[in-house]
Design a protein that fits this description.
Layout lengths: L1 H28 L3 E5 L7 H4 L5 E5 L2 H6 L3 H5 L4 E5 L17 H4 L4 H10 L1 H6 E14 L24 E3 L3 H10 L7 H6 E4 L4 H6 L5 E5 H10 L3 E4 L7 E7 L10 H7 L5 H5 L9 H5 L10 H4 L3 H4 L10 H12 L2
Parallel strand pairs: 1-2, 1-3, 5-6, 5-7
Antiparallel strand pairs: 3-9, 4-7, 4-8, 4-9
Amino acid sequence: MNTHKFGRREFIKYGLISSLFLLFGCSKSKKKLALRGVSNSFPSEFINSLSTGWEFFPINDLELKKFPYNSTLQEKTDLIVLNDGWISDLPINSLQEIKADIIRNKFSNQTNSFLDGLGEDYKKKLLPLAVSPWVIIFRNEDSLSLKNKNSWEVMFSSSLVNQIVFPNSPYLLISIAQKIDLVNDFSRIKSQAKLFDDRNALNWVVSGRAKAAVLPLSRCVDRLIEDPRLSVLFPQEGSPLNWTVLASPSLSPEHFPTDWFNSLWGANYLSRVISKGFLPPTNLSDLRKKNIKFPQKYQSIFFPEESVWNKCWSLPRLSFERKKDYALNWNNS
C-alpha cells in the first residue's frame, strides 16, 4: 500500500519537473530575434513589417556617437539597420555574410554599384534595404532670386549667400562640386554656407534662420508635405545617394529574414515607404509597372525619371587615409 502511494507521489513530482522543463524549453525557443538601430533614422514601416518573431531595440543616438556600434555588437543582436555613413565603424570581422541570393539577384545597377564601392569584404556582409537621394530644400522659394533652378548650381544664387545649411561631410560636398565641374575651388560652396550641420539642418530652414539646406529626402519629406512654405529640388544632374543597409553580427545563428524584405516592399507597405522618401534597392522600371500614385506635385521627387535616377551616384567607402586627404583638400581650398 505504501509503495503504491510512494509511486504516485514520485509520478506527480517528476511530471511537474518535466512540465517545467518543457515550459522552459518553449520559452527559450520562442525568444524573439533582435533587430537594433537608431529609430529616428528610418520610418515606422521598417519595424511594422517585421514578423512577430522579431523585436526592435532602439540604439541611443548620443551613445552611438561616442561608441559606434561597440555595445550593439556585444549584445544579443541578429540584425543591425544603419545608415551607410556608419559602415566604416563596423569591424568587418564582427560581421557574417548575409546570404540572400534571391534578393541580391533583383538589385538594380545603382545598388550593385554601391556594393562594389564598399569592397569585396563588406559587399558580402551588408545588404541594402532602402535608398534616399540627397536634395535641396528651400523655405519660401518664390521670394528667392534663384538661378539654374534645376541644377546643383542653384546653390550659388546671390540670394543664398551665407544662407545654406550643408552636411558636415567634405567627401559628399566635393562629390557634388565635381559633378558640376567645380574641381578644386570649394570656396564658392563655403561662401554660401550658413553652417555645416547634419543633425539640425531641417530645423534651421523651418525656423527661417536659413533659406535652404542639403539633406536626404527621407529626412525632410514629412515637413515638406505639412509645411507649404517648403519646396524641394532633385537636381537634373542626379544626386548622391543615402543608403540604409543591414548587417548581421557573427554571433547570430539566424538566416536572413527574406520574408521581411518582401513584406516591406510588398503591396501593404510599398507606397507608404516611398512616400517617406525611400526607394527599394530594386529596379525602378519594376516599380513603374505597379502604377503607384502620388500627388502630381511630388511625383518627380518621390519617383524620379529614369534618366535622372541613372545619373545619381553612391560614395565609395574610404580608407582613413583617404578621408584625411579629402578633409585636407577641403580645408585648403
